[in-house]
Specification:
It is built from six helices and 18 strands. With 285 residues, it is of the alpha+beta class. It has an eight-stranded antiparallel barrel with strand order 11-12-13-14-15-16-17-18. Helix 1 crosses helix 6, helix 2 crosses helix 6 and helix 3 runs antiparallel to helix 5.
Length: 285
């Protein structure tokens, strides 16, 4: 729960900074005049992760905050080890670093999370992940292949070198199962919250839902065409895929959509048993 609260705080902070056009943090760059924005790297909050975007470079702060040039990719690294490159956005997790990945089940994503959890200086992700200067120094000249099928064994010498430089000392790589559980919890925490929007098609109206950290969806809506309220219940996965049922006096319908955690949007389609259908969209509040 402590980790989830920390993630909530950092997400709100990132959202506020972006809304205000914020940039900055511990970055440096040229006077090119390029517009900058601020995002957050989450695998728990990661502090001390090196980032580079265009002319900007720096390290993430205690909330995982980084800056990026608008329209430019951002690359994250530890010493000589490149973790991944992705288009800059408000929220970046290991999932966004891997092309085609949708959640914590992707093998490359799991390898990245195993690495990040293992090099955490105090080996306690509940208070965030700290990548220290000593670990960065130990990683200079090193590399890892996060796509390797034998990552658990092929990374062992690098892991020993890096963790020897940590406060905890030399430890083995965190298991894939533990890494998956950890990231799943982080993704659900990022998704959890209230969303509100509109729907349209053969019927139209408004809707509001709440999702919790267990993936349970509940809420309500109101038709502006047939003028009736309805309840919404359903589930959401760690990849943001949502399936819900809406029911009221005029019948029931099925809603299917997706949450984009990088933008906080929820959108999809709806249909009912009498061939009425349409689309819906909204945003995280």
């Amino acid at each position: 729960m402590k980790s989830y609260l920390r993630i909530l705080i950092l997400c709100l902070s990132a959202g506020f900074l972006i809304a205000c056009g914020g940039g900055g943090g511990s970055d440096s760059g040229s006077d090119s005049g390029s517009a900058t924005q601020t995002g957050t790297f989450v695998d728990a909050a990661v502090e001390g992760l090196t980032y580079t975007s265009g002319s900007l470079t720096g390290e993430t702060d205690a909330l995982g905050t980084f800056s990026y040039e608008t329209g430019q990719p951002v690359t994250f690294s530890v010493g000589g080890i490149t973790i991944g490159t992705v288009s800059g956005s408000a929220i970046i997790t290991p999932v966004q670093l891997v092309t085609g990945a949708i959640n914590e089940t992707d093998p490359t994503v799991i390898n990245i999370v195993q690495f990040m959890l293992t090099i955490d200086d105090d080996h306690d992700p509940s208070n965030g992940i700290q990548v220290t200067a000593a670990i960065h120094d130990a990683a200079v000249g090193l590399s890892l292949d996060f796509t390797a099928a034998d990552f658990d064994t092929s990374s062992s010498s690098v892991i020993d070198t890096l963790t020897t430089a940590s406060t905890v000392g030399s430890i083995v790589l965190v298991s894939g199962a533990d890494a998956g559980d950890h990231l799943r919890g982080s993704l659900f925490s990022l998704i959890a919250g209230s969303y509100s929007g509109t729907y349209s098609g053969t019927d139209s109206g408004n809707w509001t839902i709440t999702t919790d950290v267990n993936g349970v969806v509940s809420g309500s809506g109101n038709s502006t065409v047939e003028v009736f309220p309805f309840n919404i219940t359903g589930t959401i996965t760690s990849s943001g895929s949502t399936t819900a049922s809406a029911g009221g006096a005029a019948g029931s319908s099925t809603w299917s959509g997706i949450v984009d955690i990088t933008t906080g949007t929820l959108s999809g389609t709806w249909t009912d048993s009498v061939s009425e259908n349409g689309t819906f969209s909204g945003n995280k509040l």
